[in-house]
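anyone seen this seq b4? input:
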Amino acid sequence: MIARTLAALTLAALGLVRAEAGETLDRVKTSGVLNDLALSDYPPFGFINAENQLDGFDADVAKAVADRLGVALKLSAPGWETIVSGRWRGRWDVCICSMSPTVERAKVLNFPVRYYSSPAFLIVHKDEAAIRSAADLSGKRVGVGQGSTYETYLAKTLVLEGGKPIDFPFHDVIAVPGDETVHFRNLALGPGVRLDAVIADLATAKGNIAANGKLKIVGGPLYAEPDDIATDPGDPEWDRELARVIGELKADGTLARISRKWFDTDITADDS
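predicted toks r here
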């Protein structure tokens, strides 16, 4: 009797796992809609365009993923803290939103596949002479995105999932979290006027330097910054499907074309 009961419980448990394993994929296929989390304040990766629509590199990648799945795309931007806290409970299916896989984030989210990589760099005003690398940031005011890896980098707590150890050659930096677009605008006012430096990914840095002509990159990469698709834990079938789709989009050049549209270079290459 005990053996039969245990066997029945085991089969029930296996059935439950099978039912839950493809829940997100089933929902997407049944509804015909991919609900993707996006950023609205991180150009050119995610922003509100002139037509008041979410736009950018990430939106184009999400559209390519939805097209490959044969479904429509719905973008939502509830805010970064809501996104990284996880526990989406079916409200959203995926985050194609420039998220780096940190050890802390991996406690509440899965990172099934990488879709681009753009290293972190230090940006200063073109007339700045005292800051030549991260070692010169001690006591300086540095603009970073709210809740970004750059903020945890300055706090010396950044640990990337599966990444190499990161060097923190500074102390007592005054991190200024906020809107990255505003940070670049403030930095362009002059050395130390409102900020001494900004930390951002290479693609964003190049775009802002080209746009205003008043900034420059100093030093080498601060650390390699991979960006992965994120999902709610608990659906390995969905994770495998997303990894398969991104693999196809890389192999046929779709991701490279989207990247060149926004950055004039391919940040999606495996060695980028």
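Residues 1-19 have pLDDT under 50 and may be disordered. The chain has two domains: 2-117+227-263, 120-223. kinda curious what u guys think
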